[in-house]
């Protein structure tokens, strides 16, 4: 019963956040199971020991990541909304989940504080890249690329309509091309279209970090 209440409260808070800060949330509802499945599959969790999720939100993706992860792996879940993160941690009391309340703009610092020594094998981003301020988006992607292990994957989704038109409450109407943006940070991309999601989305699985720290690669 408590789990159901936490889930409903988290979903309601997520919905309200969409109204209060559209540029940060970029959606009113959590991702569909079709999009979640594409994200989890792209992360190649069968061989990953250290996994990062950017934007745990209501825990929809977090739960599926934990189900697919190795027993000896750890999931570092980043979320800037404290109450949402607390609700997810309560609902998913898995010892492999390390909840991190903070910005994804400096992933390395947060990981080090959480006891992660060295690069990570997979990063799954549920952040609304098309609506983030450009300087914050660049800081997050640079941070992610620097902590990714050689051979690791970075998985990001975006909505297809952003290629045509996206609306920001602070910057107005614009276009955003996710593939070109990620291409500044990663050498390779594999793209999957998820039509059943509302709205239709694309998932990009990226490899070959162009910004990896020399210390992290060691």
Automatic annotation (TrEMBL):
> What residue range is the signal peptide?
none
| Molecular-function GO terms, alphabetical | methyltransferase activity
Domain named Methyltransferase: which ranges?
51-152
Q: Could you tell me the superkingdom of the organism this chain comes from? A: Bacteria
Q: Keywords for this entry? A: Methyltransferase, Transferase
InterPro entries under this entry?
A: Methyltransf_25, rRNA_Ade_Mease_Trfase_CS, SAM-dependent_MTases_sf
Q: Is Transferase a UniProt keyword of this protein?
A: yes
PROSITE patterns from the entry?
RRNA_A_DIMETH (PS01131)
Q: Which GO terms describe its biological process?
A: methylation
Q: What is this protein called?
A: Methyltransferase domain-containing protein
Taxonomic source organism? Nannocystis bainbridge
